[in-house]
C-alpha cells in the first residue's frame, strides 16, 4: 500500500465525487473544420457528460455507492443530468441554479479512429465553491473514497481533499484538464491519476516510453503523492509507488468506436474496486476493463458498462 492508503477504508464503502456535469454534444466527422469553414458531419449525439459526472455514473454502474457533488442550471440540460443520476443510482447532491446555464461540452469525434477533441464550458458548475464542499462535509467524512478533478474551481477541489484527508478518507485526484496547480495538493492525495498528456504538463517532459512514465511517476511521488497511476491509452496504465512499479496492460472488448470518456470510465471503475478494499493494482486492472468496454460504444456516460459486463471481461482476459 502506498503511504496514506487505509487498508480498512475506515469501515466505509461509499464514494463521494466532486466535479461538473456538462451536456455532451458529440459531432463525428473526418476532421475539425478550419476557421471560417463549414464541414458536414456524419453523426451527432446529445447526452450527459463532464468528468466528475462521468466518473460518478461509471462508479455507480460498476457497483459503487456514489454521491456526486455539483451544480447545474434549471434548464433542459440540468434535467438531463438529474435523470442520468436517477437511472444510474447516483445520489445527486446537486444544486440547481436559476438564471445560469448548465455546463456543456463540444466534442469532436474522428469518425475513422474514434479519437476526440473537447471544449468545455462549465456553466453553473463553474460556480462550485468551498460552500458546496462544506455543505457536503458529512458525506465526505463518512466516505471510503473521495475523488475530484479540475473542471470545477481549484479551491473547491483542494478544500474537499483537505476534509477527506483530515477524516482519514482515501483520496483520488485526477489533475484534468491539464493546468498549473500548486504542489501542496499532492500531499493531500493517496492516488494521483493523470493521463500521459496531463502528466507531461505537470512534469515538463513527454511520456512516450516506459522509462519516461516511471520518471514522471517518481516526480509525482516526490511532490508528495502516495501513489501515481498514469493512464497510457492503448498501452494500459502504470501503477507506481515507492515500493512497486508495474505496467498493467490495456484490455480489449472489441472495436474502438469512441475514446471520449475513457479516462473517466477508468477512474470510476478504479474507485468502485478500491471502495471494495481490492488491492490498488487489482483496482487498476478493474479500471482498465471498465475503460475497455466504454470505448467500444459511442458517447460518455451512456457508454459506461455495468458491473456484470466488467466482471465478464475480467474473467475472460
UniProtKB/TrEMBL annotation:
<comment type="pathway">
    <text>Carbohydrate metabolism; D-ribose degradation; D-ribose 5-phosphate from beta-D-ribopyranose: step 2/2.</text>
</comment>
<feature type="binding site">
    <location>
        <begin position="50"/>
        <end position="54"/>
    </location>
    <ligand>
        <name>substrate</name>
    </ligand>
</feature>
<feature type="binding site">
    <location>
        <begin position="263"/>
        <end position="264"/>
    </location>
    <ligand>
        <name>ATP</name>
    </ligand>
</feature>
<keyword id="KW-0418">Kinase</keyword>
<feature type="binding site">
    <location>
        <position position="297"/>
    </location>
    <ligand>
        <name>K(+)</name>
    </ligand>
</feature>
<comment type="similarity">
    <text>Belongs to the carbohydrate kinase pfkB family.</text>
</comment>
<feature type="binding site">
    <location>
        <position position="258"/>
    </location>
    <ligand>
        <name>K(+)</name>
    </ligand>
</feature>
<keyword id="KW-0479">Metal-binding</keyword>
<keyword id="KW-0119">Carbohydrate metabolism</keyword>
<keyword id="KW-0808">Transferase</keyword>
<feature type="binding site">
    <location>
        <begin position="22"/>
        <end position="24"/>
    </location>
    <ligand>
        <name>substrate</name>
    </ligand>
</feature>
<dbReference type="InterPro" id="IPR029056">
    <property type="entry name" value="Ribokinase-like"/>
</dbReference>
<comment type="function">
    <text>Catalyzes the phosphorylation of ribose at O-5 in a reaction requiring ATP and magnesium. The resulting D-ribose-5-phosphate can then be used either for sythesis of nucleotides, histidine, and tryptophan, or as a component of the pentose phosphate pathway.</text>
</comment>
<keyword id="KW-0067">ATP-binding</keyword>
<feature type="binding site">
    <location>
        <position position="260"/>
    </location>
    <ligand>
        <name>K(+)</name>
    </ligand>
</feature>
<protein>
    <recommendedName>
        <fullName>Ribokinase</fullName>
        <ecNumber>2.7.1.15</ecNumber>
    </recommendedName>
</protein>
<dbReference type="GO" id="GO:0004747">
    <property type="term" value="F:ribokinase activity"/>
</dbReference>
<feature type="binding site">
    <location>
        <position position="151"/>
    </location>
    <ligand>
        <name>substrate</name>
    </ligand>
</feature>
<comment type="similarity">
    <text>Belongs to the carbohydrate kinase PfkB family. Ribokinase subfamily.</text>
</comment>
<dbReference type="InterPro" id="IPR002139">
    <property type="entry name" value="Ribo/fructo_kinase"/>
</dbReference>
<feature type="binding site">
    <location>
        <position position="264"/>
    </location>
    <ligand>
        <name>substrate</name>
    </ligand>
</feature>
<keyword id="KW-0630">Potassium</keyword>
<feature type="active site" description="Proton acceptor">
    <location>
        <position position="264"/>
    </location>
</feature>
<feature type="binding site">
    <location>
        <position position="294"/>
    </location>
    <ligand>
        <name>K(+)</name>
    </ligand>
</feature>
<keyword id="KW-0963">Cytoplasm</keyword>
<keyword id="KW-0460">Magnesium</keyword>
<feature type="binding site">
    <location>
        <begin position="231"/>
        <end position="236"/>
    </location>
    <ligand>
        <name>ATP</name>
    </ligand>
</feature>
<feature type="binding site">
    <location>
        <position position="299"/>
    </location>
    <ligand>
        <name>K(+)</name>
    </ligand>
</feature>
<keyword id="KW-0547">Nucleotide-binding</keyword>
<dbReference type="InterPro" id="IPR002173">
    <property type="entry name" value="Carboh/pur_kinase_PfkB_CS"/>
</dbReference>
<dbReference type="InterPro" id="IPR011611">
    <property type="entry name" value="PfkB_dom"/>
</dbReference>
<feature type="binding site">
    <location>
        <position position="195"/>
    </location>
    <ligand>
        <name>ATP</name>
    </ligand>
</feature>
<feature type="domain" description="Carbohydrate kinase PfkB">
    <location>
        <begin position="15"/>
        <end position="305"/>
    </location>
</feature>
<dbReference type="InterPro" id="IPR011877">
    <property type="entry name" value="Ribokinase"/>
</dbReference>
<dbReference type="Pfam" id="PF00294">
    <property type="entry name" value="PfkB"/>
</dbReference>
<comment type="subunit">
    <text>Homodimer.</text>
</comment>
Amino acid at each position: 500500500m502506498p503511504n496514506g492508503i487505509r487498508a480498512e477504508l475506515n469501515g466505509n464503502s461509499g464514494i463521494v465525487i466532486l466535479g461538473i456535469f456538462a451536456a455532451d454534444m458529440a459531432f463525428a466527422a473526418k476532421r475539425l473544420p478550419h476557421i471560417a469553414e463549414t464541414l458536414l458531419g456524419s453523426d451527432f449525439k446529445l447526452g450527459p457528460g463532464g468528468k466528475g459526472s462521468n466518473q460518478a455514473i461509471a462508479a455507480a454502474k460498476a457497483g459503487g455507492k456514489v454521491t456526486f457533488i455539483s451544480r447545474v442550471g434549471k434548464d433542459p440540460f440540468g434535467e438531463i443530468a438529474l435523470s442520468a443520476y436517477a437511472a444510474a443510482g447516483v445520489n445527486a447532491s446537486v444544486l440547481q441554479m436559476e438564471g445560469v446555464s448548465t455546463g456543456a461540452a463540444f466534442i469532436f469525434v474522428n469518425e475513422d479512429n474514434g479519437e476526440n477533441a473537447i471544449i468545455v464550458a462549465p456553466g453553473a458548475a463553474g460556480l462550485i465553491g468551498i460552500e458546496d464542499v462544506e455543505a457536503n462535509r458529512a458525506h465526505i467524512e463518512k466516505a471510503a473514497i473521495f475523488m475530484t478533478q479540475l473542471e470545477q474551481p481549484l479551491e473547491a477541489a483542494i478544500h474537499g481533499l483537505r476534509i477527506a484527508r483530515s477524516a482519514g478518507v482515501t483520496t483520488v485526484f485526477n489533475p484534468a484538464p491539464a493546468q498549473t496547480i500548486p504542489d501542496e495538493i499532492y500531499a493531500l492525495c493517496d492516488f494521483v491519476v493523470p493521463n500521459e498528456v496531463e502528466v507531461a504538463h505537470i512534469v515538463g517532459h513527454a511520456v512516450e516510453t516506459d522509462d519516461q512514465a516511471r520518471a514522471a511517476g517518481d516526480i509525482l511521488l516526490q511532490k508528495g503523492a502516495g501513489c501515481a497511476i498514469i493512464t497510457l491509452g492503448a498501452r494500459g496504465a502504470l501503477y507506481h509507488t515507492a515500493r512497486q512499479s508495474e505496467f498493467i496492460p490495456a484490455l480489449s472488448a472489441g472495436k474502438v468506436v469512441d475514446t471520449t470518456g475513457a479516462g473517466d470510465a477508468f477512474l470510476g471503475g478504479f474507485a468502485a474496486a478500491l471502495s471494495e478494499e481490492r488491492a490498488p493494482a487489482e483496482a487498476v486492472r478493474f479500471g482498465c476493463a471498465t475503460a475497455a468496454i466504454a470505448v467500444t460504444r459511442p458517447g460518455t456516460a451512456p457508454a459506461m458498462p455495468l458491473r456484470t459486463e466488467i466482471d465478464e471481461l475480467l474473467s475472460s482476459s
